[in-house]
Amino acid sequence: MSKVSEAQLKASKKWDEAHKERKKYIVARSQAKRFVNKLATEEDLEKLQKLIEEKQKNA
After folding, report:
1. Which pLDDT score, from 0 to 100, does residue 2 have?
2. Cα separation, 11 vs 17, whole angstroms
3. pLDDT value at residue 59
4. pLDDT of residue 51
5. For residue 17, what are the CA distances in angstroms to 1, 4, 10, 23, 25?
6. Is-contact 33 24, C-beta < 8 A?
7. pLDDT (average), residues 18-30
8. How far is the CA of 26 from the CAs of 15, 42, 50, 59, in angstroms?
9. DSSP, residue by residue, 20-42
10. Mutual angle of helices 20-34 and 6-18, in 10-degree steps
11. CA atoms within 13 A on the CB side of 36
12. Is 23's pLDDT higher than 90?
């Protein structure tokens, strides 16, 4: 396992603090992708597809 340097940890924390909304977006997107790819049932996917289609119509 590789260790992350103190400088890298500090830089990451600084970026996270300066970009809270972007970080929130990235985390949410990653969680959604993981859910779809690893956990979602067929029923979940159908519901999500309907939500996506509705969102696209109203965009």
Report:
1. 78
2. 10
3. 84
4. 97
5. 26, 19, 11, 9, 14
6. no
7. 97
8. 13, 25, 23, 21
9. HHHHHHHHHHHHHHHIIIII--H
10. 100
11. 12
12. yes
What pTM was estimated for this model as a whole? Answer: 0.78
Q: Taking a C-beta distance cutoff of 8 angstroms, is the pair 48, 36 a contact?
A: yes
Pair 16, 23: CB distance under 8 Å = yes
How buried is 48 (Cβ within 10 angstroms: 0-12 exposed, 13-18 middle, 19+ buried)? Answer: middle
Q: Average pLDDT in the 29-43 region?
A: 98
pLDDT the model gives residue 18:
97
Structure token digits, residue 2? 């590789």
Calpha distance 48→36 (Å, rounded): 9
Amino acid at 48: L
